[in-house]
Amino acid sequence: MPVRLDAPGSPVPSVTVLGVRGIGEVVAGADVASLVVDALAHDGVSLGAGDCLVISSKVASKALGLTWSGSKEDAVAAGTVRVVAERWAEGRPTRVVESVAGPVMAAAGVDASNTGPSAALLVLPDDPDAVAARLRSNVLALLGLPEATPFAVVLSDTAGRAWRGGLTDFALGSAGLLVLEDLRGGVDHDGRPLAVTMRAVADEVAASADLVKGKANGIPAALVRGLDPACFDASADGARRLVRTGPGDWFALGHVEAVRAALGAAPGSDEALEVGVASAGGRDDVAARVGRVVALALLEVPDGSADVEVAGDAAEVTAGATDDYELGRLVTRLEVAAHSEALRATVTARGPLCVTLTLSEPDPAVTSHASRQS
User: Fold this and answer.
1) What is the rounded distance in angstroms from the CA atom of residue 273 to the CA atom of residue 240?
2) 0.70 cut: is pTM over it?
């Protein structure tokens, strides 16, 4: 269970972060624990109780021989539990997925950078917490310390975050560290009750370590020293405890993918590719977006039809069907599908078994007002 680390009277903590130099290129079969311990010893640093090692998951994947010889697309598919969002880039779909390793991240964590001379793709371990636990046990054995020693290993990786620009490191796996600090039931500085606050300690540790590890420094590990003793627990839950899925996940699908999935084109499906996927680099032109709207709307109305005329930044779509019911379904699907492409659908004419709609950019004044309200 998560715990509180800021009990009244606790000393103000001081934390230091030290990069581990001299590990060198890691190959399959390497003993990562020995490499880290020896590298620190070479710099005159000895490990002990109260220390936390943060080790790049890339190092662990190399040592475990987790390379992929096929295409990146196949590697991503193999490491995917479900697709959350997708865009088209460089001739193939780029996907944010819930990975087999646990976290929701781009491309299931498949990595092509800093992978060594072979330039092979690296994939994540299926159970990062188990990898972290083995590394912790191996380090403690090398130091001659018991398993109950307050000592932790965090396996770090890099990802983007919803609502925030840029990338940061996070805890992919963890052993010996209480990954969450539960502040619920306490009070803030002003005495007001805290009802929902839980601090992701393991992620903060991983991010702090990346300040000295970097991405191009050849420093794949760091020692974090000075954490509150209450942070350590040999039997603590791993980093998978930090992954939010199920009823607590408010963002199980991207907003575009949620609309498309409701119309029968779930992300990652053949139907999604058949309809077409928006590009990652920016907004496509109106013709491409309207084409996807029409294809999505017709996906489950096989006897329907749609004639399209594009003029500038708008398009006229005349929908037809075999009866009024199917026509109503098709028009409704067109209106909903337009939302997935940030277009407004307006009915402009009706005739026997046909309806004409105009698809256009939303009114900027309305969009601006909605943005201010949200």
Assistant:
1) 31
2) yes
